[in-house]
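Late entry, evening session. Most of the bench is empty. Finally got around to the prediction I had been postponing all week. Sequence below, unchanged from the version circulated by S.P.
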Amino acid sequence: MFQIAALIFSIVNGVPSAEPDGTILSRHHFETVEACQDFLVSDKGKVLQETITGNPEFQHTGSLVKFECRMTSDPGINPDSPPR
């Protein structure tokens, strides 16, 4: 299973940090990396990206957000299940 990760990089003097300062994982899970990448370029994927990059915290702190597809460590978790 694969999941979308938003990697948050701080920018100092116009240069992004070498390593991400934080990561936000989406609730979306995909069977293949190709399906994950296809979602990222779809209209729904663009809305997800705009929602994260449009966060005022990232806009005002000089952060760069990069998106990637990551293999999930626990494919048994279904993020769409209601909390218990």
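Two things to note before I forget:
The two ends are 23 Å apart (CA to CA).
The longest helix spans residues 43-53.
Will write this up properly tomorrow.
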